[in-house]
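Standup notes
- DV: blocked on the single-chain target, sequence here:
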Amino acid sequence: MEDQFKNPNHQQESNQAHWLDSTYSVRTSPHQAAVKRIVDAALAAVNPYQAIIRSVSRTENLLQVGNQRYDLDVYQQIALIGLGKAAFPMVSALKELLGDRQCGGMLVTKDGYANPVGGKRLEGIQICETGHPIPDARGIAAGQEIQRLLAGLDAQDLVIFLISGGGSALLTLPAPGVSLADMQSLTRLLLRCGAAINQINTLRKHLDQVKGGGLARLAAPAMMLTLALSDVIGDPPDIIASGPTTPDISTFQDAWAILDQYHLIDEIPDTIRIHLEKGCRGEVPETLKPADPIFSQTQYIVVGSNYQAACAAIKQAQTSGMNALLLTSFLQGEAREAGRMMAALARQIQMTGEPLRRPACIIAGGETTVTVRGNGKGGRNQELALGSLVDFSGLEQMMLVALATDGGDGPTDAAGAVVTGESLRRALTKDLDVLKFQEQNDAYGFFENLGDLLKPGPTQTNVNDLAFLFAF
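- DV (later): unblocked, structure below
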């Protein structure tokens, strides 16, 4: 294969504009083609449609998933329930595999993510777009409709859940006595204080009827299969989309401890505090636990992950003639501190040639958090990039690309941002005060001024975040 790094003038076969082409620092780099191919390789490896095709096969009326076979002739009904940012392509792929076998169901995804794959429509599947990351009334309506659909299933039916990141906010059915406004208030508090996704989902599981095994409870006694695209570190099934079809190991006491850790007990709505207090006293049933007999009729498979995306990018970097290293797929902590760490690695390469000599590509995957103190706009990847900028200043022939694999970083239309050794100099020529933008958590405003926001639009996949450090 052609060495794309050693030939930076190599052009992609397609003449169509690429989403990285609009980013100033990538567009002006002589290594633009190599950067684009490495980032694209990561996203292509976790294409949800292809992930389902790789994981599921059909021979006549036998559906093979891992080491388990499903005889389609046995089931009276087959229902498909898609949930998350990748729901549409995942359901599309399974519908294609099922072919002539009639099935119905519903998918719930983020606004703008229900786009036909190859122009195909999903006959028999209700489609609902709802709010993210703050739940909305459409998410409750979707929860009620799925509750109705699952209530009609029995032991002679098969329900296939296609779960991906974002599902926890997109589908909601609050516990009795807890309102949508209550859940919206709690979500905003948790996002602003910098709580990790596993902590946020622990609380959601104990305040929602469809999470923490809730969908499995509603679907029983039907046979259940879950195919999941993971957007959480380590791929724990009980955290992906708040584990709607899996056992939950967390407790009401765990949920209460998280509120205590972030000093939120006096700030949350009274209804939530009362519900959790009742749960801690045993007056409200716990989420479903591993010993529950419901799970004797279930199978759960992770079909794509952050690690898989990072490994594909590493392989492409090596093919492009670069020394490549997967630093971690467990990156977490404050985003701006993670950015400083990536800049420190870059400086180490420049000073000593360690841990890799040029040309080099180091990749870190995971999910950082942002403790919001200002009134600016951004997301954790933009915050990571801004956090690296001062320490990155002056580094030669280096680039940091930080992106959310779903194409949406926080409540913005950007996936992330790009930093080079020239970014600070360029900012100063535009009278942009980096520290002020950091104080306001306004990474979006900063990189918008530089023309270095990444805006791919919805990628229809979602496996957390990736940071690419390039030393050319």
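- Follow-up: Confidence is low (pLDDT under 50) at residues 1-15.
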